[in-house]
Each structure stands twice: as C-alpha cells, then as structure tokens.
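Record 1 of the preview.
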Amino acid sequence: MTSEPTISRPRYAIVDIARGVAIIAMVAYHLCWDLSLLRFIAPDVGRDPNWVLIARTILAAFMLLVGVGLVLGHGNGIRWPSFWRRTVFVVLGALAITLGTWLVFPDSFVYFGVLHAIALFSLLGLAFVRAPLWLAIAVAAIVIILPFLYSDPLFNEKLFSWIGFWQVPPPANDLVPLFPWFGVVLVGLIATRLVLASPLAGRLAAISPAGRLPQLLALLGRWSLLIYLLHQPILLGLLYPAAAVLQPEIAMRSSDFLRSCQTTCMAGGTSAPLCTTYCQCGLEGVEANDLWGAVYSGMVSAQEQTILDASNRQCSALIYPELNMSQ
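->
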C-alpha cells in the first residue's frame, strides 16, 4: 500500500448532502436520547427496540459513507498527509468523547464509539480501496455474517468487546465493534468502486445543489465531523440546566407508576380496564400520602406499609366490590 501521484476527482455534492442528512439524523437521535435520559420524554431511547433500530440505521449510513469517502479520497493513490491529518483529528475527538463520557457516565462511558470506529476502520479500509474487488466483497461478507454465527463470553468483557463477538454487550452509551460494522464500511467502499467504474459516475458528479436546502445539507455534510464532536456538549449543556429548573422526572413519575402498575396488574390476569381503574386509584393514594420515596427506594416503614395496605384494599374494592366487606 504505497502512495502514488493522485488524479483529482470531482467533488460529489450528493455525498456531502448524504452526510448532511446523516448528521442531522444523528443529532436528532441524540437529542431524543438526551431527553429520555433527563426524563423529558417517556420512551427509553437507549433500549426501546424501535429506537435501537433507528440508531443502527443512522450508524449504518455513517459507516457506508466512511467507505464512500475512502474511495473518493484515496482511490487513485493514498494521500497520506491528508489521511493522517484527518485521522489525528478523529482520534483526538474520540479521546475527548471517552474522557467526557467517563466523567459524566462513569458506568457506561464510550470507550469504542463512532469516532473510535471511524479511525480504525478508515485505516483498515485503505487496504481495500485498490485491492481486487472480489477480495473486498469476500472480506465484507465474512465480517458482516460471522457475528451471527459465532459468539463467546470472552467478548462480553470491555477489553475484547470492541471486536464484536459478545453474547451480552457490556454497558456503554455507544459501542461500534469491528464485527460487523467494518463490513458495512466495505459495502460502501465496494459500491463506490462499482459506481466510479460505470457511466453513473459522471451523472452523479454533475449533480449540483441549486436550492437553499440542498446547499445547507451539503455544507453540513462538509462539516459533519466537527458537528458530531460539538453537538452533544451543546445539547447537554442546554438540557441539564433546563432539567434542573423544570424537574421533568417529577412529571414523569406518575406515568412511570401507572405503566408499571398496569403491566403487573394485567400479568395477574385482571382485564386492562379494571387495571386502569385500580392503578389510577393507587396513584392517587401515593400522591395523597406522599409515598414517592417509599415507592422508588423500596424502603417502607411500618406506618407507610399500613397506609399502602389500606390503599390497596380500597383500590381492590373498586374493581371487585365483593371484597368491600364493610358494605
């Protein structure tokens, strides 16, 4: 893999636009993640299956674009000075994210996230920008498929989890392992090589953003790396003070109580409408007697237990009147 004199390629505005769309999607997702973390919204964005699918779709777009960028930037010869400048910037950004998340989220800090992956995958991907296409295709297939066929508890540990063969991933707010995500980078690389070898390349190069929106997206795409580095500190810097003032967790605790109560009640065989009545009654009892501390901590005094038992009997009598022996 040696450096060669490079032939200038046209800048593909459509790639910048795609990067702009991807970075907007990433910022929007992280905004929702932050709102969920601080209890402004009810869904658990980090664990809800629908949100996980959204996150992985956005990540796939980023990884595909890494492969696209490698071919456009180095397909005619590795431009080592520009490659190392960008890589150093990415690595410094990755280290900053690791340090920042370790300070804020010590139990789930980011030790191999998007930027860590981009730095490593870009270096590995250089080997395939001019390698035989069949080799890139074979490696991409292996890297993507192998995690679905093999796993081992060893990779549950943080030290090895970045490789990707875990059975249970360790806690991390962002984890982008080599398997299968480097394979996605190779898919973008392969697709770009195929496009550049076809008549489609000229038509794509001729696309130029004419309106304000495409031009804005292209601009955001050209600065996507800087935006990625800065957007979370800005979002959290705004939302943490807002949460301290508005205390959204207090507003959310009622809906959390009702949702948990409804699930438990229906699991016991009671119908949904009766459970709704029962849980609403229980919520009124908790609020009227200021029992939130007991509910959340699980540490219930004898007096609080007496109040909870009385509330439970009263609420049970609402849905099963025959239990109300006093009438």
